[in-house]
Amino acid sequence: xxxxxxxxxxxxxxxxxxxxxxxxxxxxxxxxxxxxxxxxxxxxxxxxxxxxxxxxxxxxxxxxxxxxxxxxxxxxxxxxxxxxxxxxxxxxxxxxxxxxxxxxxxxxxxxxxxxxxxxxxxxxxxxxxxxxxxxxxxxxxxxxxxxxxxxxxxxxxxxxxxxxxxxxxxxxxxxxxxxxxxxxxxxxxxxxxxxxxxxxxxxxxxxxxxxxxxxxxxxxxx
Length: 222
Ligand SMILES: Nc1nc2c(ncn2[C@@H]2O[C@H](COP(=O)(O)OP(=O)(O)O)[C@@H](O)[C@H]2O)c(=O)[nH]1
Ligand SMILES: [Mg+2]
Fold this sequence. Notes:
Layout: E1 4-9, H1 17-24, E2 30-35, H2 40-45, E3 52-55, H3 61-70, E4 76-79, H4 91-99, E5 105-109, E6 116-117, H5 122-139, E7 151-154, H6 155-159, H7 170-180, E8 185-189, E9 191-192, H8 204-221
Helix pairs in contact: 5-8, 7-8
This protein binds guanosine-5'-diphosphate and magnesium ion (MG).
């Protein structure tokens, strides 16, 4: 997968990120980790791994990913979590779709035949279903798991989208703007594992509300 760079946004992931990097070693991929320079515990935990570390200038999940995408040199990138929930074995299938030109953005989905989540709660499941439904009805998104954000995409095409969201609203902004720019989106089944350690950063209610506001804003602005 020589044309692929993983972008790993990380915040307080000292308990998970070292295992994630260890598992990724055999894949020989370009990796960019994006975190805050104050996150000394995470930085210290991964010092023996030879990856590029990028310090984000602002705060937030979306900010980290956006900054990561801007510094990718390969044709394709993939957003990859630092918590161990994504299985790198799934990258090959996503990458093949990209290389063959089957789609510009390939979205992992926990809600297809052959897919599964070990990390979903009833609240995140319902939230996801609602936002995925809004995505289908108002933005014609052909994806079945809008908030998962295990996405492999075309770097150049991502860079021409006017992505701005610095928070978790990035999760909906990316597919919506990609669709509006007439890029091709597809879903592929994914098996989400449980987080290795540390805490989930998403607050279902606060971030869910921000995501809803963001969808409404994008609907009326674009
Ligand atoms: N750099 C950065 N990474 C973040 C931030 N918030 C979450 N992340 C990372 O984004 C990924 C997804 O977050 P996670 O807590 O697992 O959310 P989940 O989608 O609910 O499982 C993890 O790798 C986190 O470390 C942030 O504010 N800044
Ligand atoms: Mg997670």
